[in-house]
Amino acid sequence: MAELVTLTIDGQEVSVPRGTTILEAAKKIGKQVPHYCYHPGMSSPAMCRLCLVEVEGAPKSMPSCVTAVMEDQIVHTESKQAVGNRAGVLEFYLVNHPLDCPICDMSGECDLQDYVHAEGRAHGRSEEPKRVFGRDDFGGDVLFYGDRCVMCTRCVRFMNEVEQDERLTVVERGNRSVIDTFFEEGLEGTHWHGNIVDICPVGALVSKEFLYKARAWDLEHTPSICPSCSQGCNIELHTRDNLIQRIKPRENLEVNGWWMCDYGRHNHEWMNRGIRLEDPSVRTLDGAAGPMKWRDALEQLLQHVGVMGEGRVKAVATPFASNEDLGTLAELVGALGGGDMVYRSVRVEEEVVLKGFPTLARRKDLAPNTNGAELIGFTRVGDDQAAGGLEDIAKYDGIVIIMGDELSDQAEDFGREAGLFVYLGDQQSPAASNAHFVFPLTTFAEQEGSFTNIARRVQRFSPALEPSGMARPAWLILGALAAELNNGDAPRSAADAFSGLARRVEAFAGLTYQDIGIRGAVVNETYVLSES
Amino acid sequence: MAISVKVMNRPDPEDTSYLRAALSGMALTFRHLVNPSKVTQQYPEEPTDLSPRWRGTHRMEVHADGRPKCVACGLCPTVCPANCIRLVGGEDDQGNRYPIVYEIDEFRCIFCGMCQEVCPVEAIHVGQHFENAEYTRSRFVYDLDRLMEQDHPTTLLWDPSDPSSE
Questions:
Q1: ipTM confidence score
Q2: pTM for this structure?
Q3: If both were cysteines, with which of A155, A265, A372, B13 could A194 make a disulfide (CB 3.0 to 4.6 Å apart)?
Q4: CA of A480: how far to CAs of A121, A305, A474, A521, in Å?
Q5: Residue B77 is part of a domain; what is its CATH number?
């Protein structure tokens, strides 16, 4: 434990480790000192001059983002000097700002807008014409509106210090200074540049994909986990009209810091896909499938299961399913006497490491829960394209359960010889045509659950969208079936399903939803990150 | 309890006769018949006068080149207390923000005029117009083209010479 320093900020005493900045110390007691250039994940150039605070004894205002705390220091962030300084700085920011909030994508979550509304002048006094840059395409997903820029250089520092691929710089000086790319080389080809849109405190850098799509105040934010690779970045799903509009990273220093990769950020179209399974259906003797009520369909399934005999099950799951879903599937397979449980997942050649935050990378494994599947007892089959590996299951004559895997590479007669073929999924799939029972599932964005990431950290996600039709989470369906076969209790919530999993699987023992919380918790095994 | 009876006197015929009242009423009618000052508005033959602050169905202002002035900022659907405005923003061929879809459900609208008040570019207005009869209900959802076609005068929600009413 570092040595503690006690100081007074706005009349409130606070003790922080030596070396902490005044700004961070103020955060600790809930005081937000306005700032632009400071970002906890990068160096502080102290150039925005907005975080200046009054320090008693100092000859002039001090930039709180770089000034370390001192013993018995007395700091005022709301004094006349500090507030007057901020009002003056903000007035300068607005000298050349176009005030085009109505058409700016940042409007509603813009720091300049917030600070000026809170502490700025009602009217500007500048009579000079504003300088105009217009808009510039930075390549990749980023558009640059130079007029809105406040020259905090967070984007330049992100590319230099965090991504460590120098693509942006400041050109010109003073009033005419502006962020620019080197010649014609833009951000194209970099893998983390979406983050500069997040850290831009104003609307100077905006996402092309999200451009004009929704207003910030219309979006609902749901904490979730990125399903695009096994890193398990903490994210927020921003939704409107029951559609995911964009994905933003959520701070978690243990996993992804403040960042996420562009691949995960833009890989959300599939979550809004429209063609969905909506009703449970059961194939009758003449081959026609018809929609059914959940209760009737599950009761019919239980009758068929009864005559199949013990231990003749083969299950294929997708590593996009949550721990709860995989756990209840394993429980059901166990209740049916045990059998093979496999999964298939896509793997790519290379990891894409974020050099300035090396524990964060776009991992080789492009599924969020392969580790969860492994811990629960599923084995990986097939190649790196998630194809093949199901030869013995395709012709198997026992019980075949497919959960989530769309079997897009499989022949049309997949499972035709199966004694009982149960398909659970969210998408219409050709493979489902031979299934005796088809059950619609919710996607991860529509249900509560948890993923186990590459470091075996269990992290929870929350439902952001309304489920489509009669779709239900897999743990609810499979849990009800398993409970019926075992004469046990069916899980009533995802937390219930997880505690069931914790009872059955050693690695999850002792963990509860409460322990996992919003930051996640590591399972009961030591694990070296470089292993895979 | 004993029943008590109150004896009322028969009223004076002078007070109960309708004759005098009828005659005075007819005299008033007759006076109006010959009175030269007109009060009755001859609607619909003659149009009615509306107050400049009358708030009726909407109108979208257009630029000289025919584009709507709306920049799809989303403030009117946000402020609308009746939630009757549907707006989908997008980018036009010149890179400007514009409304791909802009619809106002005039049946749901309560004509408060807040959309006009909040509009930063003075695009959407409530208008001095109330003759909106249609044959179908769906015609009361005004789309962008319909709103741009309207040519009735717009409402003055405040005095232009004194916008903040000071």
A1: 0.80
A2: 0.88
A3: A265
A4: 62, 14, 10, 27
A5: 3.30.70.3270
